[in-house]
Amino acid sequence: MAIERTLSIIKPDAVAKNVIGQIYSRFEGAGLKIVAARMTQLSRAEAEGFYAVHSARPFFKDLVDFMISGPVIIQVLEGENAILKHRDLMGATDPKKADKGTIRADFADSIDANAVHGSDAEETAKVEIAYYFPALNVYSR
Ligand code: RTP
Ligand code: MG
Fold first, then answer.
1. What is the pTM of this model?
2. How remote is the C-alpha of 85 from its chain's centroid?
3. 6-30 pLDDT, tens per residue?
4. Which atom of ligand 1 is nearest to the CA of 114?
5. Less Cβ around it within 10 Å: N or C end of the chain?
6. How far is CA 130 from the centre of its chain?
7. Left (φ > 0), alpha (ψ -120 to 50) or beta: where does 41 sit?
8. pLDDT digits (tens, 9 = 90+) for 46-60
9. Which residue intervals define the domain Nucleoside diphosphate kinase-like in the entry (predicted)?
């Protein structure tokens, strides 16, 4: 199976709940390595740019408002089948529909405040990693 990289964000609700370590443990437990990471509070322009594909959707403004409401932790995860593995760990977008034991089932409150983001395909992972880590200060090991 291919070694992949994916872009992960711990959203403001999960940072505020103080569950960063518990979420990192799940990544590590699944064999995903954190190869780049930073904590930041996104500007409106950064959040709008990141979610540009959703700009015409009715939830766009709420999504951007939420993503800039507090600090986030952004990381690159690396491992076998990392993109799908990370999506499986996250669970469905709506925490009410997320499988038991997933990050969203355990830590998210609503479809808006849903704890985490993860790239959904190889191409989007590349674009999203370059968006937040343009210098590619990524540490493989
Ligand atoms: P993400 O991009 O955050 O990993 O989540 P996802 O792929 O599961 O969901 P996506 O369709 O890409 O939507 C991005 C984020 O927008 C919010 N959303 N709200 N109110 C709504 O109907 C709605 N739909 C999506 C969610 O916070 C979702 O994570
Ligand atoms: Mg998505």
1. 0.94
2. 13
3. 999 999 999 999 999 999 999 999 9
4. 27
5. C
6. 14
7. beta
8. 999 999 999 999 999
9. 3-140
